[in-house]
């Protein structure tokens, strides 16, 4: 398990599904497509519409292409986790 990135800041969060732990599955708020207080991800940085995220539950780091604005070519980047 990776440690939480030192650049992670609870003030910079994103509500994106974690592709590893899917901890949002049993949450009624998340199932309704709303933002809940528990299932957010650290927004480490972004390059245009490509978000660089870390899950506080499983510590997985990954990229997520939002498709908003000027999109980038998606290069899968996934590290760590279990």
Question: Which tags fit this structure?
Answer:
single chain; 82 residues; mainly beta; five-stranded antiparallel sheet; 1 helix; 5% helix
Layout of helices and strands:
Blueprint: E1 13-14, H1 28-31, E2 41-47, E3 50-54, E4 61-65, E5 78-79
Antiparallel strand pairs: 1-2, 2-3, 3-4, 4-5
The parts where pLDDT drops under 50 for at least 5 residues are none
Q: What is the global morphology?
A: globular
Order of helices and strands: EHEEEE
| Beta-strand segment tally | 5
The largest pleated sheet is described as: 5 strands, antiparallel
Q: For the terminal residues, how far apart are their CA atoms?
A: 6 Å
Helix vs. strand class = mainly beta
Strand coverage percent: 25-35%
Helix tally equals: 1
Strand order of the largest sheet: 1-2-3-4-5
- How much is the radius of gyration in Å? 13 Å
Structure description:
The chain has one helix at about 30; strands at about 15, 40-45, 50-55, 60-65, 80. A hairpin with a 2-residue loop joins strand 2 and strand 3 (about 50-55). A 5-stranded antiparallel beta sheet has the order 1-2-3-4-5, with no helix packed on it. It has about 80 residues and is mainly beta.
Task: Characterize this entry briefly.
With 82 residues, the protein is mainly beta. The chain is 5% helix and 26% strand. It is built from one helix and five strands.
């Amino acid at each position: 398990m990776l440690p939480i990135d030192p650049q992670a800041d609870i003030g910079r969060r994103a509500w994106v599904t974690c592709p590893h732990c899917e901890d949002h599955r049993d949450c009624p708020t998340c199932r309704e497509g709303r933002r809940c207080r528990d299932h957010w991800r650290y927004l480490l940085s972004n390059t245009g519409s490509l978000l660089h995220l870390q899950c506080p539950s499983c510590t997985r780091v990954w990229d997520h292409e939002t498709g908003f604005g000027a999109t980038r070519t998606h290069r899968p980047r996934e590290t760590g986790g279990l």
